[in-house]
Amino acid sequence: MIAIVDYGVGNVRSVERALVMVGAEARLTADPVELEAARGIVLPGVGAFAPALAKLSEHGLGRRVVELARRGKPVLGVCLGYQLLFEESTEHGRHEGLGLLPGRVVEITTSDRLPVIGWCRTAQTGPSRLWEGIGDRSYFYYVHSFTPAESSHRIGCADHAPAAASALGNVMGTQFHPEKSGADGLRLYANFLAMCS
After folding, report:
1. Residue 95's domain spans which residues?
2. pLDDT over 80 (residue 153)
3. How many helices (H) and strands (E) in the chain?
4. What is the spatial distance between Cα 159 and Cα 61, in angstroms, rounded to a whole number?
5. Structural domain tally of the chain?
6. How far apart are CA 175 and CA 91, in angstroms?
7. Which CATH number covers residue 38?
8. Distance between CA atoms of 12 and 4, rounded to whole angstroms?
9. Is the entire prediction scored with pTM above 0.85?
10. Per DSSP, which regions of 36-136 are E strands?
11. Mind telling me the catalytic residues?
């Protein structure tokens, strides 16, 4: 079972449908016992960093995700969920993140309009099983105004997102929405599922 962290923020149903489409038994959950039992964890999210982190902290879900990640459980953050994996964000002040990926989240400065919404070519910049079978300059769907700054663990970049995807061992994430990105997005979820076996 792949656990989708249900903390009251985000596009959890579309993530769930995408995972089911690639053969996963996916479950929305806020239960720490189910997170422990899961083969992998997806941390989705849409919205602002600080309120999302507060919701994760309310029931100890953030702390639980960190514990399980440090014990080796595969974790995939998507969009805001990806940003939450970093050490800090500068969105509306300075806020500490979960600290599973080094670096910070900053406002996009390379686009004339915010939020950035739409399909953007994303280049693979480092090796990762997450990219298997996906072209190294594929299009993915983005909706965001903030993004992780340059990361030593980045595996993908776009014009407005220097660290469009990152991976550090069993912790990985994408600024784009795989569940809204057609065949390549589904392939990315399938690759994550294979990593959870």
Report:
1. 2-195
2. yes
3. 6, 13
4. 33
5. 1
6. 15
7. 3.40.50.880
8. 7
9. yes
10. 40-43, 75-78, 86-89, 95-96, 101-107, 116-124
11. 79, 177, 179
